[in-house]
């Protein structure tokens, strides 16, 4: 990979002189254990030093020094990733951006907001909504940073109507591996000026450049939001209804599917009852618009369609309280599943919308075939499914065997259904083998070639994404 320099006291001294605040430079036992892993913690490795940066200039100075001395550098936001993207596999320097958390400008004329990478998604959403604007990307983890969202091209529940993070990034300030600060994109709505380097950075998981600022596109805030919770007799009927909804050309903001067993986990985790328990399978639909009448016309058509497809009922969540109880439960699914087992690993494959039912049915059958608990839920409207493989009381050896077998089969099935390895969590370190199996060799060569152009010394987040 690279003959990296092992960090010594001179390097630490240089970093401390650059930062000029010892509290923002962590070494040895002052490095919190959390810096060695991300949310899933299956991939673990400690950095030699953690720098809590406050500016692009600080990051540029450290990157330049690291480049000249061939020291690996790992960018890190809130550490909420699920594939080991922010784990420092070669130790070295970790740059934590959580202190770079300023919202720098709201430009109402150009409908943009400019932020630093450490701003949390929930802070950004609340801020722009206070000013009657709307930032549509809505990944489940609201305490993730915007820099992390951009680095993985996070999607979320509203992607079915509004698209993903990539669709809202207009410009980026980036520190390149050699310490150069540059800009890609800007406030212009159209741009055909050469290769789109901005789009290369989005989804590159911190391997090509270090994001230090982002200009994001905003929309006017929809005035009303109403959700429908629709119980079905079987999961198959629920999932089969999704293509019918999509075809009706009345696109909800979100189309989620969920099952009773995951809802029960969430109830236990939150200590609150879910509004409905009559069925094994549900679709959860969200509609937004500028008037109640506009939304009612949209959801009325979809509600009728669902009842024609065999839905048992259509529950309208038209109060703030009901809305919150349903979406709070949906937001807690991941933590709730995690709390119901000793350890878990996840798969976030994506398949064409029309093949969701085949994938969900396959996951159910696999649960019995491999004799391992698999829980799933997901964004039925955009084909991005989340499957969680649970360890429970399996021995480490048995877990490794069954989990690997399950993953292999799930990714193989997604590939057969013309899907991809990741819809929104990225590849990081943990999912590299599956990416290699799913893409042509030439595509991987192109990715590694791009990495080499940006980072010839391979110091920025090595061992991630397509690297062999």
Walk me through what this model shows.
Pfam families: FAD-oxidase_C, FAD_binding_4. Its cofactor is FAD. GO terms for molecular function: FAD binding; oxidoreductase activity. By secondary structure, this protein is α+β, with helices and mostly antiparallel strands. Among the domains are: 118 residues, Uridine Diphospho-n-acetylenolpyruvylglucosamine Reductase, domain 3 (2-Layer Sandwich), CATH 3.30.465.10; 111 residues, Alpha-Beta Plaits, CATH 3.30.70; 87 residues, Alpha-Beta Plaits. It is 36% helix and 20% strand. It has 15 helices and 18 strands. The strands form 5 sheets. A 5-stranded antiparallel sheet has the order 5-6-10-8-9. Strands 1-2-4-3 form a 4-stranded mixed sheet, covered by helices on one side. The chain has a 4-stranded antiparallel sheet with strand order 13-14-12-15, sandwiched between helices. A hairpin with a 4-residue loop joins strand 17 and strand 18. Helix 8 packs across helix 11 and helix 12 packs antiparallel against helix 13. The radius of gyration is 23 Å and the shape is globular. The N and C termini lie close together (9 Å). The model has no long low-confidence stretch (mean pLDDT 95).
């Amino acid at each position: 990979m690279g003959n990296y320099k092992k960090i010594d006291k001179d390097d630490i001294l240089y970093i401390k002189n650059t930062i000029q605040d010892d509290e923002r430079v962590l070494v040895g036992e002052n490095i919190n254990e959390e810096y060695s892993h991300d949310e899933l913690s299956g991939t673990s490795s400690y950095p030699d030093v953690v720098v809590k940066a406050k500016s692009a200039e600080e990051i540029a100075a450290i990157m330049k020094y690291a480049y000249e001395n061939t020291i690996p550098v790992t960018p890190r936001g809130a550490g909420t990733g699920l594939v080991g993207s922010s784990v420092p596999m070669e130790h070295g320097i970790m740059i934590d951006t959580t202190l770079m958390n300023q919202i720098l400008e709201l430009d109402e004329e150009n409908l943009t907001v400019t932020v630093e990478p450490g701003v949390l998604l929930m802070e950004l959403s609340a801020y722009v909504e206070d000013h009657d604007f709307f930032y549509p990307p809505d990944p489940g983890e609201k305490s993730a940073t915007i820099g992390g969202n951009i680095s993985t091209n996070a999607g979320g529940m509203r992607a079915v109507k509004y698209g993903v993070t990539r669709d809202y990034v207009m410009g980026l300030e980036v520190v390149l591996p050699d310490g150069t600060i540059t800009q890609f994109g800007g406030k212009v709505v159209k741009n055909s000026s050469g290769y789109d380097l901005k789009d290369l950075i989005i989804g590159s998981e911190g391997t090509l450049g270090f994001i230090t600022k982002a200009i994001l596109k905003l929309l006017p805030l929809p005035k009303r939001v109403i959700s429908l919770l629709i119980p079905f007799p079987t999961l198959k009927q629920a999932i089969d209804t999704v293509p019918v909804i999509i075809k009706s050309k009345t696109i909800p903001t979100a189309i989620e599917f969920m099952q009773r067993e995951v809802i029960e986990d969430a109830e236990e985790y939150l200590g609150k009852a879910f509004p409905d328990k009559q069925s094994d399978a549900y679709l959860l639909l969200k509609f937004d618009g500028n008037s109640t009448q506009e939304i009612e016309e949209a959801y009325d058509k979809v509600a009728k369609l669902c009842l024609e497809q065999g839905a048992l009922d259509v529950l309208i969540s038209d109060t703030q309280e009901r809305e919150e109880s349903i979406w709070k439960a949906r937001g807690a699914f991941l933590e709730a599943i995690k709390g119901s087992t000793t350890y878990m690993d996840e798969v976030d494959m994506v398949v064409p919308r029309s093949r969701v039912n085949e994938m969900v049915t396959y996951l159910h059958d696999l649960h019995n075939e491999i004799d391992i608990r698999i829980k799933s839920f997901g964004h039925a409207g955009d084909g991005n499914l989340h499957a969680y493989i649970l360890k429970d009381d399996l021995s480490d050896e048995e877990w490794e065997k069954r989990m690997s077998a399950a993953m292999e089969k799930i990714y193989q099935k997604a590939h057969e259904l013309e899907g991809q390895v990741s819809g929104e969590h990225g590849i990081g370190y943990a999912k590299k083998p599956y990416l290699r199996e799913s893409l042509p060799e030439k595509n991987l060569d192109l990715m590694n070639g791009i990495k080499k152009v940006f980072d010839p010394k391979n110091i920025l987040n090595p061992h991630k994404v397509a690297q062999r």
